Amino acid sequence: MNGRVFVIGLGLIGGSLALCIKKEHQDAVVVGFDINSEQARLAKMLGVIDEIAGNISDGAIDADLIIIAAPVNETKEIIQLLAELPLNPKVIVTDTGSTKSKIVESAASLLQKGITFIGGHPMAGSHKSGVSAAKEILFENAFYLLTPGNLIEEYKVELLKEWLIGTNAKFLTVTPENHDYLTGVVSHFPHIIAASIVRQTEKIAEAESLIPRLAAGGFRDITRIASSSPEMWKDILLHNRDTLIELLDQWQDEMNGIKTLLEKEKSDAILDYFKQAKKFRDGLPQKEKGAIPAFYDLFVDIPDYPGVISEITGYLAKENISITNIRILETREDIIGVLVISFQTEEDRQKAERCIGIYTSFATSVGT
Ligand SMILES: NC(=O)c1ccc[n+]([C@@H]2O[C@H](COP(=O)([O-])OP(=O)(O)OC[C@H]3O[C@@H](n4cnc5c(N)ncnc54)[C@H](O)[C@@H]3O)[C@@H](O)[C@H]2O)c1
Ligand SMILES: O=C(O)C(=O)C[C@]1(C(=O)O)C=C[C@@H](O)C=C1
């Protein structure tokens, strides 16, 4: 397809969608705007967008597709701003926000002016933010939820899907209310739990200094998402307040139930509790993005000598293994640090683990 695509908010999601569109629709021009001009500059430099717009109005007026990929509150404000502009009557406006009811409600101002708004939410992401984390394969096999209202003609929805075909995502249409309930259960609520486990652990760690050093595999797995953007999640929670309050009540019942089993030492019932959880968890679809992490990290214990990092990256380059990110954690006393190398795929992570095993004696482990 050709035409002008305007992406507002050039972070993880806006950047990844821009890459998908550029890959699939090479005749299209992708214009971007970010309130943080550094992000916009970086997006241009990384080839994520073709042009930077000076402001929202400049980018929006002649766009054929507008994608708002900003935090959910800002998304509402941007929609109000767009509703004041003389947009191309054929433009499709969509967003990527993690909540839908309030956003779709605010888009009534666009619909009143005859402008098509189709709420969107690609159900894949990461705890990482910013355009430098953007990648073309982020949405592969993920569900992409769409919330077109009844007034939206079907061909417009098909047109939007065609623009987004490079995501290789699976589109699903839901109502905004149903969207917020479903994502409340599988995404927003788990986020609260992850953050609460971290908060509780932090308090206990004040008296128990060994805790941070012992918080390894299981703790890291269940709390990875607590490292996501606090600002973004604050707004998601407030947008989906009622659902989350209901789920918190249910969770308290759930916790009281397991507490009672423990108090009464109901061994069989505790076993059943875990068996049932394992059965449901093991039965979750494996190939769908929702069930697997979006980034594949390999942890390498590295000793203290100059050039050790370039030595490792050199071995990976020799074996043609691409890395997407590299950083050092200094969490253990007995070694200089832990190198965390991120890969695009599980296959690359496994190849890297084998490669490091062949060329070095450094211990590696998989975690998040
Ligand atoms: N991170 C995820 O896992 C994920 C997944 C799916 C959907 N989402 C949703 O997608 C949206 C973007 O999330 P993200 O992870 O890309 O966040 P991000 O922080 O990586 O990027 C958001 C970008 O929006 C910019 N921005 C903020 N206000 C703006 C404004 N008024 N005008 C223009 N730009 C503005 C920020 O500067 C930032 O660069 C959010 O609504 C989020 O709820 C996130
Ligand atoms: O993988 C993660 O880090 C995510 O939290 C991604 C996740 C999710 O909860 O699944 C987070 C918010 C988005 O709205 C969609 C996807």
From TrEMBL:
<feature type="domain" description="ACT">
    <location>
        <begin position="297"/>
        <end position="368"/>
    </location>
</feature>
<feature type="domain" description="Prephenate/arogenate dehydrogenase">
    <location>
        <begin position="3"/>
        <end position="292"/>
    </location>
</feature>
<dbReference type="Pfam" id="PF20463">
    <property type="entry name" value="PDH_C"/>
</dbReference>
<dbReference type="GO" id="GO:0006571">
    <property type="term" value="P:tyrosine biosynthetic process"/>
</dbReference>
<dbReference type="InterPro" id="IPR003099">
    <property type="entry name" value="Prephen_DH"/>
</dbReference>
<keyword id="KW-0827">Tyrosine biosynthesis</keyword>
<dbReference type="InterPro" id="IPR045865">
    <property type="entry name" value="ACT-like_dom_sf"/>
</dbReference>
<dbReference type="InterPro" id="IPR008927">
    <property type="entry name" value="6-PGluconate_DH-like_C_sf"/>
</dbReference>
<dbReference type="GO" id="GO:0008977">
    <property type="term" value="F:prephenate dehydrogenase (NAD+) activity"/>
</dbReference>
<comment type="similarity">
    <text>Belongs to the prephenate/arogenate dehydrogenase family.</text>
</comment>
<dbReference type="InterPro" id="IPR002912">
    <property type="entry name" value="ACT_dom"/>
</dbReference>
<dbReference type="InterPro" id="IPR046826">
    <property type="entry name" value="PDH_N"/>
</dbReference>
<dbReference type="GO" id="GO:0070403">
    <property type="term" value="F:NAD+ binding"/>
</dbReference>
<keyword id="KW-0560">Oxidoreductase</keyword>
<dbReference type="InterPro" id="IPR046825">
    <property type="entry name" value="PDH_C"/>
</dbReference>
<dbReference type="GO" id="GO:0004665">
    <property type="term" value="F:prephenate dehydrogenase (NADP+) activity"/>
</dbReference>
<dbReference type="Pfam" id="PF01842">
    <property type="entry name" value="ACT"/>
</dbReference>
<comment type="pathway">
    <text>Amino-acid biosynthesis; L-tyrosine biosynthesis; (4-hydroxyphenyl)pyruvate from prephenate (NAD(+) route): step 1/1.</text>
</comment>
<keyword id="KW-0057">Aromatic amino acid biosynthesis</keyword>
<protein>
    <recommendedName>
        <fullName>Prephenate dehydrogenase</fullName>
        <ecNumber>1.3.1.12</ecNumber>
    </recommendedName>
</protein>
<keyword id="KW-0028">Amino-acid biosynthesis</keyword>
<dbReference type="InterPro" id="IPR050812">
    <property type="entry name" value="Preph/Arog_dehydrog"/>
</dbReference>
<keyword id="KW-0520">NAD</keyword>
<dbReference type="InterPro" id="IPR036291">
    <property type="entry name" value="NAD(P)-bd_dom_sf"/>
</dbReference>
<dbReference type="Pfam" id="PF02153">
    <property type="entry name" value="PDH_N"/>
</dbReference>
